Structures are given as structure tokens and as C-alpha cells.
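Bench notes, afternoon.
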Amino acid sequence: MTQIDVRSIEMLRQTGGQQTRILAGVDLSVSPGEFVALEGPSGAGKTSLLSCLAGLDRPTRGVVALDGVDLRTLSPRRLADLRSHSVGLIQQHDNVFSSLSVAENVELPARIRRGRLTRSEIGAALDAVGLRDRAKARPAELSGGERQRVAVARCIANRARLILADEPTESLDRANARQVIALLRDQAARGCTVVMVTHDGEAAAAASRRVRLEQGQIVSDLR
């Protein structure tokens, strides 16, 4: 469970000698266990906001705090530790490492923090996403939907308190997309905070809250 507090964040980028405003005074609070869909047109700032929540990018101004900790106060190493211990990242593509088996991909965050998961912990996470029989498979042997489910299993096995998902259903057929969204809803029901960027109206409707961005600003917030 993670409390998110975003206060007056702005993000400016220099592109081709011109300054572009990516985020323009965003305020957002997300309670533990909420499932929030970030919607809006391409270029609205959704993925930039998600990157700020993950500590992968820093806003030009303003505060991003997780459980009361201002991410600006953390060194790159402490931010990496935070991600490996508490944050699960699910991207549209490249969620798994091709050189690792499914089980090894699930265990990877624990290995990064010099820990290990038991075989039963890995198995239970793969059971939850219906992939126990694929534990030894390589990513090249998996469908797109299965690779996304491996990413969810990784969040489950490593007890992520916050899941940040960037277009997790974009490249999936409807059946696989619904399965991934059902898994994210289940994690939120168990107390995990979930923030998902999506252009998929059906996926957004499954969230408990829909926040729309346009031109770097929140224009609607529906619960």
C-alpha cells in the first residue's frame, strides 16, 4: 500500500532550442489501494507523470512524494532501492529479459537487491497469473499476453506496494487485455496502489478512478 502525493509539479524540456512544457502544475493524491487510470491524448503528459512517480524522471518544479517521502531527497541509489523493493513497473513492451527464463524474470527484482525468492513464492505468483507451467520457458516462446502476465507475476512475487503500468494492454488482443486488467484490479483489491496509463476505454472503465490529462494538466478526475 502506497500513498502518492503530487504537488504542483511542472516539467519543462528543451527540444531543438525551444522549451516545451510537458507538465503544467499537476496536483494529484492517490490513496493506498486505489486503481487509477491516466487518460488523455498522446503528448498530454501521462507517461511523463508516470516516470516522475517511479523516480525515473524529476519534475522541474514541485513535489512527488511516496508515503510522505519526497523523491527529490533521495539519491539515485536510494531511488533504485525504492523501485526494487516497493515499485512494480509494467511497460507496453520489453517487460522481460530474453536471456532469462520466466521464473528468473519473476525473481529479478529480488536478485537486484541481493535477495532470493523461494521456489514456492515464484510458483504462487505464476499460479496467480496462470503461468506455472511456463516457469522454464524463455520469453521468445511466450505470447504478448503471457509476457505481460510475467510482469504482473513479478509484481506479485516481489510484493510491490505500487504498480505503475504504461499502456499494459496496448499490444494485446481483447481477451488477453481483459485478463491483464483483471489481475491489476485484483492487486488493487489486495491493497496495492495501481496507476495505469491507457488509451483503452474498456481498461480505464475497470479502474476505480479515471484522471484525464490534456496539455500537461488534469482536466477531469472521476471516481
